[in-house]
């Protein structure tokens, strides 16, 4: 949740600032997304090494609550996602959160059904790719806007 707070707080802070300031905020969001990709990948590796099995019930409950909050945020941002790089990047962060919430919800159901950590691991690897690709896009666009 700290990442979300930084993303939304930064976006609001620069909303009426210069294009360069907005590009800087987008650069920060890209770095945060890339950090999420690394964190998710690291957790997936940790899970394989330790053979830790996730708790499907907890995964499901948290995913549902986060999904509702992120759907509200995405709905509020959708009208402004084409306004500028700042708004496009925060919209992308919210979209990624919804992909993550939905994927974890599906994984939670599969973990409960199969009693296997494999669905959680596969979702972790999928989310690593989603976050890394989004981060790459935002980092490239924001870097071009700054220089």
TrEMBL record:
Membrane topology: Multi-pass membrane protein
SUPFAM superfamilies: Cation efflux protein transmembrane domain-like
Location of this chain's protein in the cell: Membrane
Residue stretches making up the Cation efflux protein transmembrane domain: 20-144
Source organism phylogeny: Bacteria, Bacillati, Cyanobacteriota, Cyanophyceae, Nodosilineales
Protein's name according to its UniProt entry: Cation transporter
InterPro entries attached to this UniProt entry: Cation_efflux_TM (IPR058533), Cation_efflux_TMD_sf (IPR027469)
Transmembrane feature ranges: 26-46, 58-77, 98-115, 121-140
A GO-annotated cellular component: membrane
Annotated keywords: Membrane, Transmembrane, Transmembrane helix
């Amino acid at each position: 949740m700290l990442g979300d707070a930084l993303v939304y707080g930064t976006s609001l802070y620069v909303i009426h600032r210069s294009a360069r300031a907005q590009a800087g905020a987008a650069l920060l969001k890209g770095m945060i997304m890339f950090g999420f990709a690394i964190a998710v990948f690291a957790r997936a590796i940790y899970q394989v090494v330790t053979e830790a099995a996730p708790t499907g019930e907890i995964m499901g409950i948290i995913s549902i609550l986060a999904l509702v909050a992120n759907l509200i945020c995405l709905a509020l941002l959708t009208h402004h996602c084409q306004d500028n790089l700042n708004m496009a990047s925060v919209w992308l962060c919210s979209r990624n959160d919804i992909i993550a919430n939905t994927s974890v919800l599906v994984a939670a159901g599969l973990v409960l059904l199969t009693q296997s950590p494999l669905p959680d691991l596969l979702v972790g690897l999928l989310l690593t790719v989603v976050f890394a690709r989004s981060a790459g896009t935002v980092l490239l666009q924001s870097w071009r806007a700054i220089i």
